[in-house]
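A quick aside before the break. I want you to see a complete sequence-to-structure record at least once, exactly as it would be stored in a machine-readable document. Don't worry about memorizing anything.
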Amino acid sequence: MLAQLAIATLMVLATVTIHGLGLLTLTRLLRIEQREEAKEHVSPVSAKGIAITFAIVLGLFVIHGIEIWLYAALYLFAGALPDLHEAVYFSVITYSTIGYDDDGIPRAWQLVAGIEGVNGVLLLGWSTAFFVGLLARLGRR
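That is the input. The structure line, written in tokens, reads:
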């Protein structure tokens, strides 16, 4: 159990670091774009404004995708799941807390998978807060 907690803790720290750096990158890109918008007086509901929103959503998907694939790689390389497809699928539904049958992963990895679910909820919530804050800022312009 201690080994599972240590692995899960390292994964949480790694994904939180990835997430923070990803959001920081998106924020910096938004600041650059915001300066350009101020010069050009671009409306948030213009084609360019909508394209920026789509780019942010895709950026968030990329960040979460990296985190999900990191967990999938752990399960695959540890031999907890038999192939890449099952490892990625398991990680997606665990990270997003959709859920999976406990028979899908060996008992030795169930605690890590449970913590992945909690980690996913927190990181998805962080992204949601980031996105809502972005939309609120766009709405004020």
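Two observations worth writing down. Residues 53 and 135 are 8 Å apart (CA to CA). The chain has one domain: 2-140. We'll return to this after the break.
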